[in-house]
Prior knowledge:
The structure holds 2 protein chains of 2 kinds. Chain A is mainly beta. Chain A has no helices and 12 strands. In chain A, the strands form 3 sheets. In chain A, strands 2, 5, 6, 10, 11 and 12 form a 6-stranded mixed beta sheet that branches. A 4-stranded antiparallel beta sheet of chain A has the order 3-9-8-7, with no helix packed on it. A two-stranded antiparallel ribbon of chain A has the order 1-4. In chain A, strand 7 (about 60) and strand 8 form a beta hairpin. The model of chain A has no long low-confidence stretch (mean pLDDT about 90). Chain B contains no helices and 11 strands. The model of chain B has no long low-confidence stretch (mean pLDDT about 90).
Amino acid sequence: AQKITQTQPGMFVQEKEAVTLDCTYDTSDQSYGLFWYKQPSSGEMIFLIYQGSYDEQNATEGRYSLNFQKARKSANLVISASQLGDSAMYFCAMREGTDNFNKFYFGSGTKLNVKP
Amino acid sequence: DVKVTQSSRYLVKRTGEKVFLECVQDMDHENMFWYRQDPGLGLRLIYFSYDVKMKEKGDIPEGYSVSREKKERFSLILESASTNQTSMYLCASSSDSQFYLGYTFGSGTRLTVV
């Protein structure tokens, strides 16, 4: 079974509007971490936001927030006030357990296009 | 600024060649990883290392090997390159003590095997 599922291969959003990128995960561990990365056309993966499985509040980093619904095993990324520079691929990732070499699982990504 | 550096941005190699992809990090991270990225498949783990001279197979190790002789350097080796290894290769590193920071990635190497 897929550990991380991103069901939106591509999305469009109007500049200055908010957008939600979906992510569901599958794990039987109680301790895990969820991450979102941005990959612009240059290719480099940029860390955006982190949510721990025991965190009670949703993580926020500037215009990024993570809508964490533990019972539903979803970790959607919300980008507020979209900008043209937000056009990129976005990957959801998960690290399970407490391995000391924290192996990650990645989803297949969502390509976001911000329209002017 | 902390960095993961991959030696080549673009590479073109011939079928059957032995190919070396180099990755160096300057953050004193314990863990290093090699992924390949293909459209629609996301990132797939090839090999990882949690210490010098230690290596573990990831999800798709066939046709690859790795070397970690020094903490800062993790090399991916394609023993005999094939066209189905044409892909984007991403190196990453992470710290045991700063798990919440996730990975730091290099800029990637786009390898074409002809």
